[in-house]
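Researcher: Next sequence.
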Amino acid sequence: MNGITFYAHGDNPALQNAVERLGKLGVTVADAPNASVTHLLLSVPSFNKTGNLLGGGSLYDVLDRLPKTVTIIGGNLPKEQLEDYRIIDLLQDDRYLAENAAITADCAVSVARQKMNVVWRGCPVLILGWGRIGKCLAQLLRDMGADVTVAARKPSDIAILQGLSYGAEDIYKLHHGLLRYQVIFNTVPQPILCAGQTVHCRKDCLLIELASKPGIEGQNILNAAGLPGKYAPKSSGRLIASSVIRLILGREC
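Model: Next structure:
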């Protein structure tokens, strides 16, 4: 396809599903690094906490086996260290982020449902954050009949939430307390609820962490960051593949 050859580094299910999808779309995918590779496809996000590639090894070891003209595609790529390369960071693409948020919300609801001892209808739920994931999650839960409250930071967001008939709270001043909630989702990648606050949650409250950096402290917190790749790798892979085609070739698939 237009002289394009991909090499995918990594073995996680989402990346493998993306490779399979690209192959079906007629894109050449190399089994190993070689001189014909035009695009290096990495996991999204691409690095673990120690700075190594998800899938193992160093990015520079992989690049040493590829042409200097290769385009690097991934998530949270270090721009300063890759200034000599063309990069496409999917975690900087608004459309990818929006569609990934919708998948994350679907997965979060499914994961929570497996752990709950009640149905969603009438269930009091608190969502921390009114970003992409928070918006998708709030709509999805309300459609299922949950009693949804969203805690936001900006007064303008609180006003919007009230206008949309959600329960609305200042994220740093939870006046109604935490005791009423059956499920609390955090979508904010910074400290929001400390252990001294979560200890006051009801004993059967389900605390679910969705942010890349923890925002909730305490006991028995379900760490559910990176849900699309773990729980919906086929959907996540299709999104990676379609985003790549859109950004490189400028067409939908």
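Model: The mean pLDDT is 93. The chain is about 35% helix and 20% strand.
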